[in-house]
Amino acid sequence: MNYCSNCGAASLVQKIPEGDNHLRIVCENCHTIHYQNPKIVTGCLPEWEDKILLCKRAIEPRYGLWTLPAGFMENQESLEQAAVRETWEEAQARVAPLSLYVILSLPRISQVYVMFRAPLQDLNFAPGVESLEVKLFTQDEIPWEQLAFPVIRRTLTHYYQDRPRGQFPVHVEELLPPSSSPLQTS
Ligand SMILES: [Zn+2]
Fold this sequence. Notes:
The protein folds into 2 domains: 1-36, Single Sheet (Ubiquitin Ligase Nedd4, Chain: W), CATH 2.20.70.10; 39-178, Nucleoside Triphosphate Pyrophosphohydrolase. It contains 2 helices and 11 strands; from the N terminus they run βββββββαβββαβ. It has helices at residues 79-91, 150-162; strands at residues 12-15, 24-27, 33-34, 39-48, 51-57, 66-67, 70-72, 99-106, 111-119, 131-137, 171-174. The longest helix is centred in the middle third of the chain and has 13 residues, at 79-91.
């Protein structure tokens, strides 16, 4: 960001504003403080009988790897609307109702993932423009070595741990980078 999005002047500096305790991007011309805050990614774990719907990514990053349908929230939409929209865009799949399931904070990259469990309404799914393929997987078929992101692996791991008990409590966690994650040491 070189120019102030408020006044257009090339007068952005980094400083700690009075009364604040974080370094911010501040315009020295119009004095606007350009706050940068975490982004929310949300999506679904679409269920059909004993299967889960995964999408093979047609875009970078992680082209060709499998993921749950999820993406960044847009302005002016609710969390649930965003999760349903992403599921439609990536898998052309209709899901309802949504049950809050996993909230993962990724502080290193300033993102929060919010994943819902959601039954598929029918089998009329198909790849959206961001997917090469969408497919239902049983637990034995899940391509664990070809999952796109650690958050997807974590969400599916919770799911298959919870499912035998038939209870799906909400999991709220911080997902650490692989080098420091206790989840990766076993
Ligand atoms: Zn300005």
